[in-house]
Every structure is written in C-alpha cells, then in structure tokens.
Amino acid sequence: MICRVIQHVCFEDLGSWKDILVRRGYDIVRHQAGIDLPGEEEWREADLGIVLGGPVGVYDTELFPWLEEERRLLAGRIAARGPLLGVCLGAQLAASALGAAVYPSGGKEIGWGTIRLTAEGERSCLRHLRDVPVLHWHGDTFDLPPGAELLASTDKTQRQAFLLGSRLLAVQFHPEAETEELERWLIGHACELAAAGADPRRIRADGRRFGGLLRPRAAKVLEEWLDGLGVAVQ
What stretch of H or E contains 91? Predict the structure, then answer.
C-alpha cells in the first residue's frame, strides 16, 4: 500500500504516526510542496493521502502559486473518495478544496491545550483525545465545509476538526507532534513565536509534561480512523 505525504516544512512531519503507518504496511512516499508535488493520477490512486502543516496561508496564492495546484490535488482526491488526512495547513487546504473560506482568525493559537469535543466528536476517533492537551500552532481558521461534521473546538478557534463521511479527517491541531523533536519546531518557527509573544520555554516545558500522555492517545486516533476505512493491517 502507498501513503503519499505532502510536507510543507521538513520538521512538520508524520511524527508519532509514522511508525503506525509502517506497521500497517504502508510504503511512505514524501512530496515537498512547491518542489515535487505528486502528479494527479499518482496522488488520486494512492491508498492514503496525508497533507501536513506549514507556515503559509491557503489564500497566499500570489506569493506561493503552487498552493492552487495543491488545492486542486486535494479536490480531486476528495471527489474520488480517496482516504485523506489533513493536519493544520492540510486541514485548511481540505476545507478550501471543499469550497469553504479560509482566513486569518485574528490571533495566534500556539501552545498546548485541550480541545472541546462536539457530540459528533465524542462519537468519532477524536474521543481518544478527551482531556488530553494537544499542540496548537496556527493563526488561520476556516468555515465548516458543506456536509462536514464539526468534531472539536477551543475557546480561540471554533472549528478545530471536521469529518466528511469516513474518508476525510481534518484536524487544525497537531496530534502527531513528537515532543522529542519539538526543538526543531521552536527553532524553525522562532520568528513566528517572537511575533506572537509565545514563549518557547513554556511550549518546551509543556511538551515534556504532556507528550507522554498524548502519544498513545494520538495513536488510537489514527488506528481507529484507519480501521474505519476497512484497510486491514498487513
């Protein structure tokens, strides 16, 4: 089985989810946005597609023209009902591909905090994250796409996750975040942290505090969603 992953920055990777995918028999093929996006056919026909986070905005197409191509890829995969998992920017791109607006939220949400599950969220794979702090790192938000179920919110961001059918899961936060690799995030996003007034010492300390709790819960989220696709472990 082939899992194609679109990355936007090298340190925002599959994190703790990589081992699960390998164990379930996926060959992981990585594509760098703006450099080597997959072709339409190979992306559409992959057994699983994952789009990860990044520091650009979906609407920044004049600055980063490849965003239009990436959005078309997601729209084509969604139309073909190919399993798709979007994280942070990936979730925003999925919302945009479904026709929903994506725009600045008016403030950054950076750091560790719990999500508030909706009734649909409580019935979804995200229930494993109940009362578990996750890593937030975003300044944009999106409208809920037509037909999608809202799964989670926070006080700062009303739309944190959505599900469309069983084959598209989009999360604004980072369940996959691997705290052992968090220093790469703090370095890579140092300018953003400074501009937002976010203290890397707090994020680092909270990562040490909550990372061990998040990892097994995040694993259950991914395992249950994959199980719902009807794909057996190889």
Answer: helix 89-97
